[in-house]
Specification:
The structure is a homodimer of 220-residue chains.
Chain A: H1 4-16, H2 26-33, H3 37-49, E1 53-56, E2 60-63, H4 65-87, H5 96-103, H6 109-118, E3 144-145, E4 155-160, H7 165-173, E5 181-188, E6 193-198, E7 203-207, H8 208-211, E8 214-218
Antiparallel strand pairs in A: 1-2, 3-8, 4-5, 4-8, 5-6, 6-7
Helix pairs in contact in A: 1-2, 1-4, 2-3, 4-5
The structure holds a DNA duplex (30 and 30 nucleotides).
Chain lengths: 220, 220
DNA sequence: GGCTTTATTTTGATTAGTCAAATTCTTATC
DNA sequence: GATAAGAATTTGACTAATCAAAATAAAGCC
């Protein structure tokens, strides 16, 4: 059985490799896990000797098929738990990430399956992040972000990546949750600033960096 | 923050001290936690230096007020989780103990309070074990067991102590769950055997040791 | 192409929790 | 009250995960 430390390393490598094949640097991995780089190196070596990752010395790390399977399991648990906390326990979508971070390592498959059924087998969590299936399939659809989409077109927010409470509370305050309708009124690359127009007529300004965390699709 | 190992030691000391003041032996504690006695000694010394227990060298260990507070918190989490698994996720009361054992160390107060409210602030879990309040109060009522109660009187099962799946499945198969009505038809101390009569007319035989795990009150 | 900056890896220590086996204490028994 | 049996403790060793700081490799720059 993988320890929760191992699970966290694998999950983080999956998230940082964006999709699948990119090598993840020790620096990024260490930062994401809040450890010093030397610790990440040590741990990655041990994951490699367990066949969970390929370590390309001094160049980065990549999940093996076995590691990916474990990582997707953790992600599934995390996202189903978040959905449960919001849908059943009525917690705020801006605060459930940290809770799920703990519970994801303690919940059994038996409990998870019940939860999944209770929630009606949801395809995405409250942030719009896709939930891997029991078999490890995950929706890999690529979306534009508010930083890259076309201007003026009516849009629907599909997903808010970035789990920090601060950012999510900013999003919530401004009605920028999955499902919300907006369009980009103006994009000033020099100033690094985006101005949104909501259906209510309200405008919201945010930085390019922040806008990159909000994924959108054309309003259907 | 107490690690889950520390939480388990404290919880187990509470359970083994039956009520409050009895000293718990290292042998019993080690057996309950599935470690060798030397490990228990080492850990108890460290708990003592943190002010969570009083260690009476070579005689046993007892919780301090601080340790008791922590232990009751763990017990509350455990029992509320068991109740949730049975009441909401419709799991079998004979199998939820092991699940709760893991989740009890990972659930936050915020989530626990929501769960408690969702369940309507239950006083006991599916085994009839009393749930400590948020303030650490626990129902200390003493009940007779099927091994000690008067013969022939109509009884109501209030609680099944002993969490092993085997025992609970035996109880379930024979309708011996909290709330069930029975009376003791015969108690043969020499043979160590008890014979029960259920309201359905069915009789059930069980050993004195097994009977000691089933707590009863006069049927109201 | 040599030098500097930056990232990565290595080395040596530390902490929590554990076991096996040797030692010491308590207690019951004669 | 001495002794044997049983329980508890101590000692030495190990694993997982971590950090600080030294050593090494890679990459960029003039």
């Amino acid at each position: 059985m993988a320890t929760s430390t191992v699970e966290n390393y694998l999950k983080q490598i999956l998230l940082l490799s964006a999709g699948d094949d990119a090598l993840v640097s020790m620096g990024d991995l260490a930062a994401a896990l809040a450890v010093v780089p030397g610790t990440a190196t040590t741990m990655v070596k041990s994951l490699a000797s367990d066949g969970l990752v390929d370590h390309h010395l001094r160049h980065g790390v990549r999940l093996t098929a076995a590691g990916r399977r474990v990582a997707l399991g953790v992600l599934r648990r995390h996202r189903l738990i978040e959905t449960f906390l919001v849908e059943v326990l009525k917690m705020d979508w801006t605060e459930v990430h940290a809770e799920a971070e703990l519970l994801e390592h303690a919940i059994s498959d038996a409990v998870l399956d019940r939860l999944d059924a209770l929630l009606g087998h949801p395809a995405a969590d409250p942030h719009g992040d896709p939930i891997p299936t029991r078999l490890g399939k995950i929706d890999a659809q690529v979306y534009a972000t508010l930083a890259t989409c076309v201007v003026a077109q009516p849009l629907r927010i599909v997903r808010v990546t970035e789990q920090s409470g601060e950012f999510l509370q900013f999003a919530e305050r401004n009605g920028l949750r999955p499902g919300a309708r907006v369009r980009v009124a103006e994009r000033d690359l020099a100033a690094g600033l985006i101005t949104l127009k909501k259906t209510s007529g309200r405008t919201v300004a945010l930085s390019l960096a922040a806008a990159g965390n909000i994924l959108v699709a054309p309003a259907r």
